[in-house]
């Protein structure tokens, strides 16, 4: 084979390859320009990022609300369990802790004689080991000296007028006769 023919074949192949490369390059330019537009893609990516930021903020707010609701529900359950426990174990509380339980100063002797369980309990515990005040405070009645005191100031005139009216109308006599008839 002559050398010129080989060179001709190589140049021919190179020319054909060059044409194909030009077409490919042109097609790449067209696709980059119109199909895969770089700037449109960048704008689209920016829009997606903004949308994702909004979505992220929304999800964080919603998760915060859900966590608050769960916390409230858990707190209600916890308080309900405490209330249930207190209702089931109310007999373990002292009378000071339970509103509405009357103060008992002394057991009736007949109940103590009949019930050996109370006697055993009192023997074990003793009488009031923690020195809890069981008796209510004594209410001191008004002394007779206070009732004998005379009114002073502006009430003195009112009292004397009432006394005169009652004497004149016979209210005291009527009251005393009514009280005697009841006896």
Could you characterize what this model shows?
With 183 residues, this protein is mostly helical. Among the domains are: 3-83; 149-182, no CATH class. It has helices at residues 3-35, 38-88, 109-114, 116-125, 144-148, 154-169, 171-182. The longest helix has 51 residues, at 38-88. The model is unreliable at 174-183 (pLDDT under 50).
Unreliable stretches: 174-183
- The helix tally amounts to 7
Name the overall outline.
Answer: elongated
- The rounded Rg comes to 53 Å
Report the biggest beta sheet as strand number plus sense, adding barrel if it closes.
none
What's the helix-strand series?
A: HHHHHHH
Task: Using brief descriptors, characterize the structure shown.
183 residues, mainly alpha
List the helices and strands and how they pair.
Layout: H1 3-35, H2 38-88, H3 109-114, H4 116-125, H5 144-148, H6 154-169, H7 171-182
């Amino acid at each position: 084979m002559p050398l010129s023919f080989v060179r001709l074949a190589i140049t021919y192949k190179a020319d054909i390859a060059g044409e194909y490369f030009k077409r490919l390059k042109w097609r790449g330019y067209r696709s980059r320009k119109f199909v895969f537009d770089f700037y449109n893609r960048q704008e689209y990516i920016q829009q997606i990022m903004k949308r994702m930021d909004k979505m992220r903020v929304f999800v964080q707010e919603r998760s915060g609300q859900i966590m608050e609701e769960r916390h409230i529900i858990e707190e209600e359950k916890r308080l309900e369990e405490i209330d249930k426990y207190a209702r089931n174990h109310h007999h373990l509380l002292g009378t000071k802790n339970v509103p509405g339980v009357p103060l008992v100063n002394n057991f009736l002797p007949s109940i103590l004689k009949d019930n050996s369980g109370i006697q055993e309990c009192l023997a074990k515990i003793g009488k009031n080991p923690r020195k809890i005040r069981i008796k209510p405070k004594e209410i001191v009645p008004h002394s007779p000296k206070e009732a004998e005191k005379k009114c002073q100031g502006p009430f003195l005139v009112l009292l004397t007028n009432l006394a005169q009216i009652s004497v004149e109308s016979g209210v005291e006599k009527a009251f005393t006769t009514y009280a005697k008839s009841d006896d």
